[in-house]
Amino acid sequence: MTVDTPRILVWDSAVRLVHWLLVILVPLLWWTAEEGYMDWHRRLGLTMTGLVLFRLIWGLVGTWTARFVPMVRGLGSIKSYIRQLRSGEYRASFGHSPLAVLGVFALLLALATQVATGLFSVDVDGLESGPLAVLVSFDTGRQLAEIHELNFNLLAVLIALHVTAVALYHFVLKANLVGPMITGRRFRTDFPGNTIPRNHTRPLPMAVAIVLSLACVFAISNFG
């Protein structure tokens, strides 16, 4: 591609920032839990809670490629997309491909489960607990703590599958998915013949999503 080839916005700054913050937070949360740094684990967990809440809100009011409704509609073409991959006729999707949508929803569900169970979890001796653990019984808190631990294993598997898929796209299909998740942009020529939806940034909805997420985290952290 020449320097004159036009680039278009695919991933807005919010989607990219959440993505890379999760890349940092997930291993840090695992490490702090393994090493027993529970104060830091709680702080990072609340940060993760805010990110997940923001991403869920942004999936409703954000840019076209961030919203869930277009993703769900795209699932209708998953069979034809798989046939294209098998035949070697790979065509880039503007946003998430139908297969990637399944991964996005699975990861978001696993992340939401992780933060939700962590908020109510209680350790074996009852000395460490999530900020909302007072709302449930000790036995329920223990059950949620076990789900919290098991769900992390599922989350780790989903992350491994995600990284593997990105690597396969890069080495087999020669599609660079990492670069656009850094810059937010791809070449217009990556989508020949495709109608490109309007994907403008939305400052006001973004501000609302940020305020709502921060308010929820503040309320949770100061509960009781």
Structure in words:
It contains eight helices and two strands. The protein has a two-stranded antiparallel sheet. The protein has 224 residues and is mostly helical. It starts with 6 loop residues before the first strand and ends with a helix.
List keywords for this structure.
224 residues; mainly alpha; 2 strands
Largest sheet: 2 strands, antiparallel
Ranges where pLDDT stays below 50 over 5 or more residues in a row are none
Given the helix and strand composition, which structural class is it? Answer: mainly alpha
Radius of gyration: 20 Å
Strand order of the largest sheet: 1-2
- Count of the separate structural domains: 1
CATH architectural type: Up-down Bundle
SS summary, helix count: 8
Number of separate strands: 2
Order of helices and strands: EHHHHHHHEH
Oligomer: single chain
Give the end-to-end Cα distance, rounded to a whole number of Å: 58 Å
| Share in helix | 55-70%
CA-based shape:
elongated
Describe what is shown at a glance.
The chain has 224 residues and is mainly alpha-helical. The chain has helices at 13-35, 38-61, 68-74, 78-87, 98-120, 138-171, 178-183, 203-221; strands at 7-9, 185-187. It has one domain (12-187, 197-221): Fumarate Reductase Cytochrome B subunit (Up-down Bundle).
